[in-house]
Design a protein that fits this description.
211 residues; Serine Threonine Protein Phosphatase 5, Tetratricopeptide repeat; 2 domains; transmembrane helix
Length: 211
């Protein structure tokens, strides 16, 4: 617990110092916060806050294996061309090599150039989940929510945020996102069938958990 307190205090202190001393523009605040959250995500994935400090050689770790099907779904639902598409393709390439941290950092660089692009925020959230081995980190949650705030009517942010929530065991939250999305999808479409199937499985799991 002490390690977490120190990490959070340092992150908050760094953010305050950057804003006060660096005098960065308001449009860059969210990117700066996302970068600090990425650091905390790495600490959550690789750090051991409960252990005593000890010097050791750095060890390279990779997150979850690259999910090609997930990337194809994102390309089918979100922009695959233009500047955002170029950043996403570069990130996907790094992810295929198991370089999950670099894949997330590439999208962070893209967001510095285009901070209001929902596709980059969505890709950043997916990359962070992959880097954390499937765990929904605070940074990933922030990225998904930012994508939805920029594009509230878009299906991709709600779909992938719901998917990450479901995989993290937050079934009720995933269902709350997917229910309206399934209802708005075209009748007979593949995405509607998939969502309805996912919702049915969630309802069955939630029903089995009821006393």
């Amino acid at each position: 617990m002490t390690g977490w307190i120190i990490a959070i205090v340092m992150a908050v202190g760094a953010l305050v110092a950057i804003l006060a001393v660096g005098r960065i523009p308001r449009s860059s605040w969210e990117i700066t916060a996302a970068a600090l959250l990425l650091g905390l995500a790495g600490y959550a994935w690789q750090g051991r806050p409960a252990l005593a400090g000890a010097s050791r050689q750095a060890e390279e770790k990779s997150g979850a294996a690259f999910d090609e099907k997930l990337a194809e779904q994102r390309r089918g639902m979100a922009e695959r061309y233009g500047k955002a598409g170029q950043w996403l393709l570069l990130s996907d390439g790094l992810g295929r090599q198991g370089k999950t941290r670099e894949a997330a950092n590439v999208l962070l660089s893209g967001l510095r150039e285009m901070p209001d692009d929902p596709n980059l925020w969505l890709g950043f959230g997916n990359a962070l989940v992959a880097h954390a081995g499937g765990v929904m980190s605070p940074a990933a949650d922030f990225a998904y929510r930012r994508a939805m705030a920029i594009d509230p009517g878009g299906p991709a942010p709600r779909y992938f945020y719901g998917l990450a929530l479901a995989r993290a065991g937050q079934l009720k939250e995933a269902r709350a996102l997917w229910g309206p999305l399934a209802a708005s999808a075209p009748e007979g479409s593949e995405i509607r069938k998939e969502l309805e199937g996912n919702i049915a499985r969630i309802d069955a799991m939630l029903g089995s958990q009821s006393p």
